[in-house]
Amino acid sequence: MLRSPAVLVTGALLLWFVLAFLVFPNVVMLREIFFQDGSFSTRAFSRLWSSDRARASMLNSFLLAGVLSVTVNAVGVFIVLATRYFALRGARLLWLGYATTLVYGGVVAVSGYAFVYGEHGFVTRLMRGVLSGTDPAWFSGMPAVVMVMTLTGTSYHLLFLTSALGRVDHQTIEAAQQLGASPWRILRTVVLPVLKPTLFAVTVLTFLGGLTAFAAPQVLGGRDFQTITPMILTFAGIPTSRDLAATLAVVLGVATLILLTVLNRMQAGGTYFSVSKVPSALRRQRIASPVANAVVHVLTYALFAAYLIPPLLIVVFSFTDASTISSGRITPGSFTLANYRQVLTDATASWPLLVSIGYAAVTAAVVIALMLFAARVLQKYVNPVTVAVEYLLHIPWMLPSTLTALGLIITYSVPRAVVGGRVLTGTLVLLAVAYIAAKIPITLRMLKAAYAGIPDSLEEAATLLGAGGLHTFRRVLLPLVLPTAAAVSALNFNSLLDDYDISVFLAHPLYQPLGIAIQNATRNEGTSDSTALTLVYAVVLMVVSGLVMWFVYGRRTGNGHQPQRARKRADQAAPDAGSAAAVLAGPTPTA
Length: 591
Fold this sequence. Notes:
Elements: H1 5-34, H2 43-50, H3 52-84, H4 91-98, H5 106-117, H6 122-130, H7 141-151, H8 155-165, H9 170-178, H10 183-211, H11 215-220, H12 228-236, H13 242-267, H14 290-318, H15 322-327, H16 338-345, H17 347-380, H18 384-393, H19 395-398, H20 401-411, H21 428-452, H22 456-464, H23 469-496, H24 503-506, H25 514-522, H26 528-554, H27 564-572, H28 577-585
Helix pairs in contact: 1-13, 1-20, 2-13, 3-4, 3-7, 3-8, 3-10, 4-14, 5-14, 5-25, 5-26, 8-10, 9-10, 10-13, 12-13, 13-20, 14-26, 16-17, 16-26, 17-21, 17-23, 17-25, 20-21, 21-23, 22-23, 22-28, 23-26, 25-26
């Protein structure tokens, strides 16, 4: 397989991409910071530290990241326990309300909260009608940013912590109960330790999300609460201050690496599993105290309302006319399909959606095409070269997206031989490159895990039957990893539809993706026409995201087992020569 022309071409293309767009831009940016005049200098750090706005933005970013690490974990653990551990009334309905964050996040969620609670928001108008002295900008600053990012940051808890909770052995809980342990002690000493690895991982993601927060501070932070990433954008737009933008981005990258190192050391050495030899499924626990039971129910339904109100109002008002959106008063004659007709039929209104779909589709296709080969080679052949390449491919995961974007802008604002002497800044290509780079790490990790799950004996049996390396890959290995490849591609596609953090740096002025369109409409002083389009965009994205989440996570039978087709694919992967011969001789299974 290694000598196949397709593999050689793919490998050469991947190495060129790594060197040209992951390594070289970071080298150029470091040179921009430390060697501005041809000699080593730390002047950029001195200038940065002398800027009050820059210092305030760094302090705000670290403060926000620390606060979110507490609030998001507190809310996330609570809603998972409320819907999967405790026996509460309406638990299924509660989970659906909390799960709205799975189909509605990022700049869409920020625009939704601004529509509901912002200066021109629906709730703000109601409050001012009751209390005329209410400040229109009451929902702004750090409290607003923390609230929005807390409620929209619990998606990882619903996906990963729920799965981890399923590994808790109910017999261990029963044994603790028979020994007289209180429900709180059982939760603290039996249940939560099993969740620690997932909590560590989620904490890392939450802290990084707070550290690199962009849309929420930019829209809701106001003048008094700006963070590093919006400040990087401001400095990047001033040619004489690009070194300050690069320095801020490096500070962000160093903080990310330090955080990952510290949390990995904290996690190492722990024991986080149940020890029963005959594990039994976890059963929901009843809250014996009437007072505690009432308090938990009140808190869960209050959170349910907080989660559900913004997306529900977005859907309702997306079907109303401009005057209704402006006034907030709904009548039977307010409803119309004109907004949807405009977005789906008018070329100007639908253009951002088409641009985002185009970028997302190209990115998903290119990434999966490169990583299908690369993941197999890196998984099968472990040597210093492949290990070094794998570390390089994880650069976008170790560094914030703003650092990658800024490095690309600085590097390719002048002709470079590595790309044929072309200037890429301001072109369509650079945003696609940044998208591809951002999605490589997660795709590589998922595909490597899929390849690792295929028995070696299956490939050996195919080789004994006379199949070549590439033929074995195409007819035996590839069909078995296609479900994972399809799922990762779908998630990559979905996550890029409303991307704002990378797009705002690299988008072509005439090809603005949907995330920028939504952000611009949100900040356009609440005009009804732009708000109407924003609401429709949000609903369309929620529908697409919902379909993708169903495709990836929802196609399971009621007893939690995989459907028949998935079991059939597992049977085809049985490690014997007969199954290998069947796969080699028969038609390739579809994903």
